Amino acid sequence: MLDFAAVRAAFSELTALTPLVQSGQRDVFRGQRANEEIVLKLVRVASPEVEARIGREIAAVAKLGCSYVPRIHDYGRRRVGQQDLSFIVEQYTPGETYRECLRRQPVQPLSDVLRLADALLNACCDFEAAGLVHRDIKPENLIIGSAGQIWIIDFGIVRMLGLESITPTGRPAGSFTPGYGAPEQMRNLKPKIDARADLFSVGIVLYESLVGTNPYLAGASDQLEVMRRVDGQDLRPLVIAGDPTGELSGFIAALVSRFPSRRPQTAGEARQWFEELRPRLTPP
Amino acid sequence: MQLYLQFGFGMMDHTSKLLEAWGGGGVILSPRDLEETQLRRVAAQASKLGAEPLLDPQCYMRDADHERLTKHGYFQTYQSSSTANLLSGSGARDVIARLRDLSRSIGATRHILPGLLARSVDEAWFLIHEQFIDAATQAFGGEQLIATIALSDEAVRNEGQVEAVIERVAEWPVAGFYVVGEAPSAYLVEDPVWLANMLILASGLKLLRKSVIVGYANHQMLCLAACNIDLIAAGTWLNVRAFPTAKFYASEEDEVSRRTTWYYCPQVLSEYKLLFLDIALRQGILDQMRPDRALGSIYADPLFAGAQPSTVGWGEQGAFRHYLTCLRAQCQRATAPSFADAMTMQRQLLDLAETRLRALRSRGVFGNDRDFSQVLDTNRSALIVFDQARGARLRREW
Question: Could B395 and A253 be called an inter-chain contact, meaning their C-beta atoms sit closer than 8 Å?
């Protein structure tokens, strides 16, 4: 447990600091920087791998300039009491996770799902332009603001295309969240992991939003079964009220294809596809 | 989708006559069936008739021992190169240097590169192909290269392997792909997985914006028009309408010993022995088997001139030319302006064939093992699976 007074002393430029989350590896505080509400994240580095990962997360997000990702105001390493800690000061994004929204209302209205799709696809385009793959898009990592703003958080397993991987290439399984990670990500097929992996996850989130459950997680006895389903089963095509031509269903089916060649090949292509079909949708 | 001739045994005269009648087209030449001087002669004839000559190097089997194939210089270099040399690039450069001379000497402007038949797709298989491509990029300058993708029936049946091919070859600096899938049977394929994966493979390659040729095809592969590929190639005997590896070995006899004359009835996608046309005549339904005049084949006219079909002296020459002329027209007809239209045409083709086949069979007219009734559902199933896999993209990117 960190000494709160030491935190305040180390970050004297921040005011009104209050603890939000405290865990073994990570402490999160809410506070103010000048007149803006911020979040301070402090991370204890357990290994060089974790340190490298954090460094990437920060560097990737700091250069993104994506309106769906909290802005980073400051980052680095600082002495807090007796410990050297990595820190990030970022925009505070009040709201609830999309997981909480889904718990309250498992099947979301089509108009809300379309708004979410629009945000996620735009964000994926920004990620693609910055040469990064988020690799962990899921309801837990989406924040829905009280005014409907959408943020994507947690770049903890981001992959920077063109940089050497942190996780060992020979490892049979990569970093992923079962039920949301793309098959190629699950199987650690690194050369195949690009924007199409994020598009898969976006597709699963949209699918789940429209049917009320994650099709891979529902009724699965364990994670191995989830992985078997992701790797071996095509999802049932959706029948969506308000999608008279079936184009949205086809689009989502393409996003959640098991094989990257069957998905849109870039985030830009996916966004364009979505923009083309959207005028033909008639949300109830 | 166009049809090219897949050159095979005894096709020299057919090739010149058909290309002349068609006023163009193309032929994929077979070193297994032609010596070097013959290759040049047939290619020159084709070019003169406005058709494109392509050379299939037929490097599918490293241990092929077919006498004529193994006499070709590039093939000897290929066989004498160790696998290590092919993988390191020096062997590939030697093979390509000799192949370049041959391919250019026949007047080809697009060059099919050597390809091994993959029993299973693995890294070594990819690397050898990439060495051939590297060597050919140097050797052929800016001329168009067509990479061969030859897969065993087991590899075609494996969805993961098919997708692995598509992912990897997306980076290959070639103008197109020449796809050869080992058939799981001698002719018509009953396996919907194999056929669905061929559709998925061909369409996946086409979505890379490259030209796609599927070799060793037959009328069952008309469904490839739903992939919007450029052309299929078919020939006379069955071993150029499906891909049997045995034909590259000395023990394989050419088909002269198994001659039976088959009449291709295009509207039912089936072939019939002439004795069943006699039955059709007796039952008063022979006219239902007459080909649509618009398909352009006059070769089967004697069968419908009023005499008993088996007595009019109609033989393999007419049968082959009729088959290929009809198939060529059917390829062109199956070409559609959109994926939805192409799929509709395929479904209609099958439905219409089924109705007519039922009528013929109810009157005692059967196509034996070339009756399409046995594979109608294979094609339907494959098209449904294919649509689920690629339909959404193809609807946008036709």
Answer: no
> Do A261 and B163 make contact, defined as CB atoms within 8 angstroms?
yes
Give the burial string for B126-140 (b: 16+ CB within 10 Å, else e): bebbbbbbebbbebb
- pLDDT tens profile A33-64: 988 999 999 988 767 776 776 776 677 788 88
Contact B167 A261 (CB under 8 A): yes
Same domain for B225 and B113: yes
**A262 shares contact with chain B (CB less than 8 Å):** yes
The confidence band for A164, taking pLDDT boundaries of 50, 70 and 90, is low
Out of B196, B216, B248, pick the residue that ends a domain: B248
Which residue numbers of B have CB closer than 8 Å to A's CBs?
159, 163, 166-167, 170, 204, 207, 388-393, 395-396
Residues B62 and B176 in one domain: yes
Domain span including residue B278 = 262-390
Whole-model pTM: value is 0.90
In chain A, which ranges are E strands?
14-22, 26-33, 36-43, 72-80, 83-91, 96-97, 132-133, 142-144, 150-152, 159-160
Shared domain check, B148 and B190: yes
Number of domains in chain B: 2
Q: Are B162 and B273 found together in one domain?
A: no
pLDDT band at A119 (very low <50, low <70, confident <90, very high): very high
pLDDT at B256: 53
Measured between beta carbons, which residues in chain B are less than 8 angstroms from residue A264?
393
Cα(B335)–Cα(B329) distance, rounded to whole angstroms? Answer: 10
